[in-house]
Amino acid sequence: MLGETTRDRKTERREATRQEILAAAWAVAHEYGLAQLTLRQVAHRVGMRAPSLYTHFASKHAIYDAMFGQAWQQCDALAADATARLPHQPRAMVKAISRTFFDFSVADLARHQLMNQRTVPGFTPSEESYAPSRRVVARTVDTLAGIGVTDRGDIEIWFAVVAGLIDQQFANDPGGDSRRRLLDRAVDMWADLVGLPEDDEPIDTGTGIRP
Description:
By secondary structure, this protein is an all-alpha fold.
């Protein structure tokens, strides 16, 4: 009938299999560690022989690449939603962004390592998989610019502070919240450095800076 679309069932099955392989790869990474992932382990979990995986992914690094893109897509979607609901006061805004990324990161060690560390020797993400990461960073930079923080060094220091607390959480209090409880203090120290007003002070709505 007119108006009906023809489903490409072969493509749907192929994509479903790719997603099943990725889910298996994440399961292996969570159980054995990201760098210990093997094609044999992944194939076993989806009921394949290891060579059959090459029908769907050209190499183990191609699986890592798809996992990387998937992880950053999740982060991008979460960050976009959080950005739409940010408070208007500068410090509260930065604290909210910091908590969103902190919570996402510490929820999954293997995912964090793949997204933000060089845990897999020789792995470099493709431009396609890296694109969501660029969107997250660009959105954050635009948000900071909206409150008057435009210096690249100031922005990189903030990224480093949040990333450092994430790494400290994994290293010293996995499953806890001791470093999360330091986030607001760390952001206030950074905000003092870059000259953001206290949240109860009036600000210039055009720049986010004290009038």
